Amino acid sequence: MLGPVILAASRSDRMRRLMTAAPGTKQVVDRFIPGERVDDVVPIIEDLTGRGLELTMDVVGEDITTREQAYAARDAYLELIDRLKPLELGERVEMSVKLSMFGQALEGGHELALANVRPVVEAAAEIGTTVTLDAEDHTTLDSMFAIHDELRKDFPQTGCVIQAYLFRTEADARRLAANGSRVRLVKGAYKEPAEVAYQQKHEIDKAYVRVLRTLMEGEGYPMIGSHDPRLISIAQELARRAGRKLNEYEFQMLYGIRSEEHLRLAAEGHRMRVYTAYGTDWYGYFMRRLAEKPANLRFFLRSMVTKG
Ligand SMILES: Cc1cc2nc3c(=O)[nH]c(=O)nc-3n(C[C@H](O)[C@H](O)[C@H](O)COP(=O)(O)OP(=O)(O)OC[C@H]3O[C@@H](n4cnc5c(N)ncnc54)[C@H](O)[C@@H]3O)c2cc1C
Fold it and tell me: Quick one: which residues bind substrate (predicted)?
């Protein structure tokens, strides 16, 4: 019940101001967002790759309101890629981007987001890696898939995300699986209406398995974005039945969530990629993590009271 309330708050400017100023917030935020600057995350990238993990890097931010912010987002990714170059990690460290941060919702936003994300995809390719387009709320997805198709003409390894909770996703999965795309499948983290999305956990989980089967049996590269132990076992079984080798799919989890499981799957020989977010505009990302698990909210409120 709390999840939708927290997701609604994630869109409120007033809540944003209250939360960011609250004592104790930083301590809880750090669990999910381990730094604000590139300098903070380079040691983390070195540490996690040294332990056999792969990463997808997210500069936090979304729903920007000016073109200057969109250019700044592009530049933040270019700076990161520049810093990755000497590390020579290739596809072990890729990028995740939210197109709303690249200007998608502004006037002429579709073209603006495409123009801003293209240099990031080009720079990523130059250091031997790639970019995955995150999925945001359902109203943004037609534009995201069109940008994905456009980028794939020159950079076929560009990935995208699909969300099991949306009714449209089974059809999207069939299309993407047939055209050989890299696809991350997640349950979905936004507040979506009943007209477009399953609302019950058991329905979402069942849809996740149906979509996963399509991806595993298709021509593309499935990326299983989930911490759910049941879905992880099912993914392993579906991959085995589809005759996929361990390097023909991968698991992905968020930094700070079930970290032991990251290492366990990597030790079993799986490709395990940790989605690592950093930056100053962490509010939306952080609120979605609170909404996913009410215990996080209790911990957060306790730490506010103790510090306050
Ligand atoms: C790599 C990655 C990328 C993602 N990208 C997107 C995206 O582009 N668009 C989008 O809409 N969503 C994205 N998500 C979020 C996703 O949609 C879910 O909201 C999130 O993964 C929780 O679902 P779950 O599959 O882990 O299952 P759940 O049933 O929510 O969780 C299973 C178990 O995982 C643990 N867990 C899950 N979430 C948390 C948490 N916040 N804090 C502590 N423990 C937790 C708990 O032990 C829980 O019981 C992404 C998730 C991952 C892992």
Answer: 98, 288-289
- Catalytic position from the list 184, 213, 271, 273: 184
**CA 282 to the chain's CA centroid:** 13
Q: How far is the centre of ligand 1, averaged over its atoms, from the C-alpha of 282 (Å)?
A: 16
What digits encode the pLDDT tens for the residues 174-225? Answer: 999 999 999 999 999 999 999 999 999 999 999 999 999 999 999 999 999 9
Closest listed residue to residue 92, CA positions, set 120, 50, 134, 121: 50
Can 63 be counted among the known catalytic residues?
no
37-281 folds as TIM Barrel (3.20.20)
Is any ligand 1 atom within 6 A of the Cβ of residue 189? Answer: yes
Residues of the chain with CATH 3.20.20.220: 37-281
Put simply, whether the predicted model's pTM sits higher than 0.90 gets the answer yes
Q: Evaluate: CB of 172 within 6 angstroms of ligand 1.
A: no
User: How far, in Å, are 123, 153, 237 from residue 234 at the CA level?
Assistant: 36, 33, 5
Structure tokens at 87: 């590390």
